[in-house]
Amino acid sequence: MKQNNVTQILHWDESILSALREDIPWEDVSANSVVPAGVRGKAELLCKQDGVIAGLPVFERVFALLDPAAEVVFFAEEGSRVQKGQKLGEVTAEMRVLLSGERTALNFLGRMSGIATYTRSVADLLAGSSTKLLDTRKTTPGLRIFEKYAVRMGGGNNHRFNLSDGVLLKDNHIGAAGGVRKAIEGARAYAPFVRKIEIEVETLEQLREALDAGADIVMLDNMSGETLEQAVKLAKGRAETEISGNVTRENVQKYVKLGVDYISSGALTHSAPILDLSLKNLHPIE
Q: How far is CA 178 from CA 137, 186, 227, in A?
């Protein structure tokens, strides 16, 4: 596990317990009917696809919450590339716990690893540039803490975590305020002075107004072609630039050459397929 993510685990238990309660409302009828209580066992965590592994601490925590005596040994580093057929770890715990916690643990690990894998494939396309890859708030409700963590494990960066995290004025904020300048002035007057003001613009006219009003970051939303190039040139030296809107692995490279500061992509979290993993070879131990 990367050292700077150790404290993250302290905030995961509530969501993990919610997932376990969803899957085990009062008992696991299947496991309890075939395995006596107290019998311990061991199973292997296997990788069925090439990818980037993320969520090993969450996987481990699932079993620890069900069995404080559970032991997990990993043979892969968090955030590392893994290969099909690779043995990633071993889990030792009560047999009933291994059976009952398997799906929840794999759901977290597969989802997070899928996001990390997709993010790494996009981040690799930005290698060598000064452009930073950002995620968005387009996350699964209740799972944002896991999904944004997975983005970091894949080599991406987190945009604001929630609405309390920073000022981002989008089209509806502009409409509610009565214009770009009014929105920026309102945010500047209300938000703490240490907060940057970012605003979404869709036209060169809006961009000029935002720059004149002193925006710190301009999000160039769904601009294309010549308009986008002009926008980056206009903002250069006056505000940081972020490109957003339908950015995917297939088209991200065309934006890098423009020299923008940030590229944000909702696809990192809302379109990443899971990484196929399994818990196999379960057997009792003495």
A: 25, 11, 24
Are residues 127 and 117 both part of a single domain? no
State the CATH number of the domain containing residue 107: 3.90.1170.20
Q: Which of 94, 102, 200, 209 is catalytic?
A: 200
Domain count, the chain: 2
Q: One of 48, 81, 103, 182 is an active-site residue; which one? A: 103
Active site residue 138: yes
Q: Which of 170, 182, 188, 208 is catalytic?
A: 170
pLDDT tens digit sequence for 59-98: 999 999 999 999 999 999 999 999 999 999 999 999 999 9
Mark whether 144 is an active-site residue: no
* pTM metric for this prediction: 0.94
What would the two tokens of residue 114 be?
């899928």
170 flagged as catalytic = yes
Are residues 260 and 132 located together in one domain of the fold?
yes
CA angle (199, 205, 209) in 5-degree steps: 55
The residue annotated as part of the active site, out of 135, 198, 221, 242, is 221
**Residue pair 272/136 in contact by the 8 Å Cβ criterion:** no
Indicate if 257 belongs to the active site. Answer: no
141 and 56 housed in the same domain: no
- Between CA 5 and CA 114 the distance in angstroms is 19
Of the residues 48, 81, 138, 195, only one is catalytic, namely 138
Same domain, 157 and 241: yes
* Same domain assignment for residues 139 and 203: yes
Give me the residues paired with residue 283 across strands.
42
Q: What domain range includes position 253?
A: 123-270
